[in-house]
Known about the structure:
- Keywords: Membrane, Transmembrane, Transmembrane helix.
- The structure is a single chain.
- Helices cover about 60% and strands about 5% of the residues.
- By secondary structure, it is mainly alpha-helical.
- The chain has a domain at about 1-60.
- A two-stranded antiparallel sheet has the order 1-2.
- A hairpin with a 2-residue loop joins strand 1 (about 60) and strand 2 (about 60-65).
- The longest helix has about 30 residues, at about 25-55.
- The chain is rod-shaped, with a radius of gyration of 31 Å.
- The termini are far apart.
Amino acid sequence: MSARAVLSRVSSDLSTRSTDAGATRSTDERDTRSDGLVAFGALLAVITLLGVLSKKRRRGGVWRRDPGSTPLPESNLPESTVASSGSERPGV
């Protein structure tokens, strides 16, 4: 084969690959990527769901022991929470 024929063939192969980029991948590679994306999406959904559920269980920054219980008294809260609740004004 002459150099011109090789160059012509390489350029035609490159143009075919650039227009058909998705078709050059094997089916197994696409399936693996798809499975990975599905697994990642499922993990993200579970983390989001747990975050939403944990926020619903909080009330006023204090974890509730059960749905009918009252929040802990202010004396059991850390100093930073008591100070920011309005009973004291730090730095004034």
